[in-house]
Design brief:
This protein is an alpha/beta fold and 357 residues long. It is built from twelve helices and twelve strands. Bound molecules: nicotinamide-adenine-dinucleotide (NAD). Nicotinamide-adenine-dinucleotide binds next to loops.
Length: 357
């Protein structure tokens, strides 16, 4: 069966990374019609926006997209295309698997955990009041002197419905991917209402999966120490937006950094797969940067489509190339100036040869 998938090359190094990933995914033999749509800073002049409506329409129609990174223009009045995309499509779950691949230089081995981050609310809801505004003064007046008069204020909304939804996503992910445990991470000893509500929601969902998936809770500060000391003890971690943002990067660091960290933004109707890293614009057009994270995002997309055998073949090929350490980009070499480092396209060629071997 052929799938139609929206392909967004993005900007900066995005187009060269996405071109490499597309060839590798096609090499698995899964029949995909790629519907290519541009977004990002390079098309702002042509369309007057970095996120034209046809991009969203295409994703709504196809329900699945592979996306390259997109630069957030500074000082132009445009908000982040990435945030706009997640909001417009209600992609409420950000899923970031963090897995050690032998051959990637890292302080840890045997890490295999997944961050499931709520993507729509929390301090990222954009409810902020600047210093000196009437709204900030009104909130100060309600705070019984707990907020000092020279403050700006950000509001942290945590809803029961969104918390249950992200918890259910984490448990369903655990079931579908043969995982054993879901850990909810928050700071409910301090934020008794918001984070307390989050735990109540995750506990309620956990009961539905009792006997199938283990459940426990950690405070976010203790979790950071645990992750640094014993990351192999954790499986699926579910979190609100801010903790999830920070811990995703921490966990990417545990497995070797941004170059190898894939991700997915998932909603009820559609899913957008993309690397954790950004557009690395200083390397644009140099055929230099590492395609691994975008290719692994493609691997997650194949799993999402139910193409498990193809996803396994792709993952096996890329992990073999990384383990051998010869046909990889500069950032995966012990010496970043190693003249034998391959370019983006050539590393993709090597992975394709492995798939076909
Ligand atoms: P970045 O991830 O683009 O780059 C940071 C550094 O990481 C780079 O200088 C490079 O040394 C390294 N790096 C990143 N990707 C790499 C790769 N594939 N191979 C090898 N090295 C790699 O982060 P930034 O510089 O903070 O952001 C650049 C732009 O990307 C910003 O406009 C930011 O808003 C945007 N961004 C977009 C997304 C997204 O599209 N989802 C995510 C993060 C940042």
């Amino acid at each position: 069966m052929a799938y139609t998938v929206t392909l967004i090359p993005g900007d900066g190094t995005g187009p060269e990374l996405v071109a490499a990933a597309r060839r590798v995914i096609d090499a698995t033999g899964v029949n995909i019609d790629w519907e290519v749509h541009d977004a990002g800073v390079d098309i702002m002049e042509k369309y007057g926006t970095p996120l034209p409506e046809q991009v969203l329409e295409s994703i709504r129609r196809n329900r699945v997209a592979l996306k390259g990174p997109i630069t957030t223009p500074i000082g132009t009045g445009f908000r982040s295309v990435n945030v706009a995309l997640r909001h417009s499509l209600n992609l409420y779950a950000c899923v970031r698997p963090c897995k050690s691949y032998p051959g990637v230089r890292s302080r840890y081995s045997n890490v295999d955990l997944v961050i499931v981050r709520e993507n729509s609310e929390d301090l990222y809801a954009g409810v902020e009041f600047d210093l000196g505004t009437p709204e900030a003064r009104q909130i100060m007046a309600m705070s019984n002197g707990k907020i000092s008069k020279d403050s700006a204020i950000s509001i942290k909304p945590i809803s029961f419905e969104a918390s249950k939804k992200i918890a259910r996503h984490a448990f369903e992910y655990a079931i579908k991917n043969g995982r054993k445990k879901v850990t909810a991470v928050a700071k409910a000893n301090i934020m008794k209402f918001t984070d307390g509500l989050f735990y109540r929601a995750t506990q309620e969902v956990a009961q539905e999966y009792a006997g199938q998936i283990e459940y426990d809770e950690w405070l976010v500060d203790a979790m950071c120490m645990q992750l640094v000391q014993r990351p192999e003890n954790f499986d699926v971690l579910v979190m609100e937006n801010l903790y999830g943002d920070i811990l995703s990067d921490l966990c990417a660091g545990l497995v070797g950094g941004l170059g190898v960290a894939p991700g997915a933004n998932i909603g009820d109707d559609s899913a957008v797969f993309e690397a954790t890293h950004g557009s690395a614009p200083k390397y644009k057009g140099l055929n230099k940067v590492n395609p691994t994270a975008v290719i692994l995002s493609g691997m997650l997309m194949l799993r999402h489509l139910g193409e498990l055998a193809a996803a396994d073949r792709l993952e096996k090929a890329i992990s073999a190339i990384i383990a051998e350490g010869r046909e990889v980009t500069y950032d995966m070499k012990p010496d970043r100036n190693d003249p034998t480092a391959l370019g983006t396209a050539e590393m993709a060629d090597a992975i394709i040869r492995k798939i076909n071997a």
